[in-house]
Amino acid sequence: MERLFKCLTEIGMPLDGYTQSGISLNTSFDSRDNVANPYDGRYALMH
Questions:
Q1: Any idea what the Cα angle at residue 3 is, between residues 17 and 8, rounded to 5°?
Q2: Using alpha carbons only, how large is the chain's radius of gyration in Å?
Q3: Handedness of CA 26, 29, 34, 36 (dihedral sign)
Q4: What's the rounded Cα separation, in Å, for the pair 8 and 12?
Q5: Cα four-point dihedral sign 30, 35, 40, 46
Q6: Is this prediction's pTM over 0.85?
């Protein structure tokens, strides 16, 4: 924790909180016949 505190203070980040922003692309595809016990189909997740 001390290392994180030192790093944040050296680069000038506020210690009470901060916000990150940007673009995010999340997709998922699920063609399984049963989620709990699938026998057929595909599952893909991309972050």
A1: 35
A2: 21
A3: negative
A4: 6
A5: positive
A6: no
Specify the amino acid at residue 40. D
Kindly state the tokens that stand for 3: 């290392």
Tens digit of pLDDT for each residue in 7-23? 878 888 777 777 778 99
In Å, the largest CA–CA distance within the chain is 54
Q: What is the SS3 assignment for 27?
A: strand
Cα of 34 vs its chain's centroid, Å: 26
For the record, the structure tokens of 33 come out as 């016949």
- What is the rounded CA–CA span in Å between residue 34 and residue 45? 17
Alpha-carbon dihedral sign for residues 8, 15, 21, 30: positive
